[in-house]
Write a structure and sequence with these properties.
The complex is a heterodimer of chains A (113) and B (111). Chain A is mostly beta strands and 113 residues long. Chain A is built from no helices and 12 strands. The chains are: A mainly beta (113), B mainly beta (111).
């Protein structure tokens, strides 16, 4: 069945460091791919999405490219801030699945000044 | 739009009591999802509805859990009787396409 695997955390970085969080997926068909972010005490919110191969999603300095050949959707940011500390979830849409999403386990990011 | 609304935001109850969590989805959204989040098990999908009809409840952990969606603007998740292991944050999310919008969650503590 469809699944999402993302790198285990926590990821600990200093402010202004480069961030990569790896995400790979297994799916039938051509799913849309997402990154959601969860700040402490809040619900998940959409960070960015890509709907087809080679699309790049971007938001708030974060980017991820839909790579069909490697079934990956890695999240990157060139210079992280303390305010980026959160849990990041990679997800894919289930085709014909009534808007159902399959989430990865989440990766906690801690950014220190 | 106010977003997905959940109530209560916090609930503390004693083992054996009935607990009812409430969710108001975003107007116009036709899918509604209930999730549970714990440190041990992460984010789990419990049940989801499409056009008020339950589509898949295979994630509901036990018969003590039940969910209803009587109309397009309201859903409940009920636990009866509650147990300490049900302590978690419960999220409701709604969707009208492939993006889901999450509510702020209900933090449930069962003593």
């Amino acid at each position: 069945g469809d699944s999402v695997t993302q790198m285990e955390g926590p990821v600990t970085l200093s402010e202004e460091a480069f961030l990569t969080i790896n995400c790979t997926y297994t799916a039938t068909g051509y799913p849309s791919l997402f990154w959601y972010v969860q700040y402490p005490g809040e619900g998940l919110q959409l960070l960015l999405k890509a709907t087809k191969a080679d699309d790049k999603g971007s938001n708030k300095g974060f980017e991820a490219t839909y790579r069909k050949e490697t079934t990956s959707f890695h999240l990157e940011k060139g210079s992280v801030q303390v305010s980026d500390s959160a849990v990041y979830f990679c997800a894919l849409s289930v085709q014909g699945g009534y808007n159902k999403l399959i989430f990865g386990a989440g990766t906690r990011l801690a950014v220190h000044p | 739009d106010a977003g997905v609304i959940q109530s209560p935001r916090h609930e503390v109850t004693e083992m054996g009591q009935e607990v009812t969590l409430r969710c108001k989805p975003i107007s116009g959204h036709n899918s509604l999802f209930w999730y549970r989040q714990t440190m041990m098990r992460g984010l789990e999908l419990l049940i989801y509805f499409n056009n008020n009809v339950p589509i898949d409840d295979s994630g509901m952990p036990e018969d003590r859990f039940s969910a209803k969606m009587p109309n397009a603007s309201f859903s409940t998740l009920k636990i009866q009787p509650s147990e300490p292991r049900d302590s978690a944050v419960y999220f409701c999310a709604s969707s009208n396409r492939d993006r889901q919008y999450f509510g702020p969650g209900t933090r449930l503590t069962v003593l």
